[in-house]
Specification:
Layout lengths: L1 E13 L12 E13 L11 H16 L2 E5 L5 H6 L5 E3 L5 H14 L4 E9 L2 E5 L3
Parallel strand pairs: 1-3, 3-4
Antiparallel strand pairs: 1-2, 2-5, 5-6
Bound molecules: zinc ion.
């Protein structure tokens, strides 16, 4: 089994409703997503796939959906204020945790046709969440 990993950096704001600690406050993160693609064999260029193909796919999704966006649970009472202020935000069915974001990226990469092995989202230099299907 061969596995390649491409790292993509981006930023987002969020808050976690009902969190007992400081994550209940509005705040942001500058994060790294590590996207791993697997294959039992190599292509005719001796690659799993080109790193730039992964970057083009995931980078476009992250730029459009996540980067410099404000991620909130769809029941978050701050939403009317964000609408009134004409702020960009993304309402989610689940709380906007690193776990949920890693799964969201995983599913997009999988839908795009890559044999994705796992997505790890580094929310800080010392804390990450990983999503994989096994
Ligand atoms: Zn946070």
């Amino acid at each position: 089994m061969f596995i390649i990993t491409k790292e993509i950096y981006f930023c987002y704001g969020h808050r976690l409703m009902h969190h007992q600690g400081k994550c209940k406050n509005l705040h942001g993160h500058s994060v790294k997503a590590s996207i791993s693609i697997k294959s039992d064999s190599l292509n005719d260029q001796a690659m799993v796939c080109d790193f730039s193909d992964v970057k083009d796919c995931v980078g476009a999704f992250i730029d459009e959906v996540l980067d410099h966006n404000f991620l909130v649970h769809r029941d978050d009472p701050i939403i009317p204020a964000l609408v009134a202020a004409n702020e960009r935000f993304l309402p989610l069915d689940e709380h906007p945790t690193a776990e949920v974001l890693s799964k969201m990226i995983f599913e997009y990469v999988k839908q795009s046709g890559f044999a994705v092995d796992q997505v790890v989202l580094w929310e800080t230099a010392s804390a990450n969440a990983c999503y994989r299907e096994d």
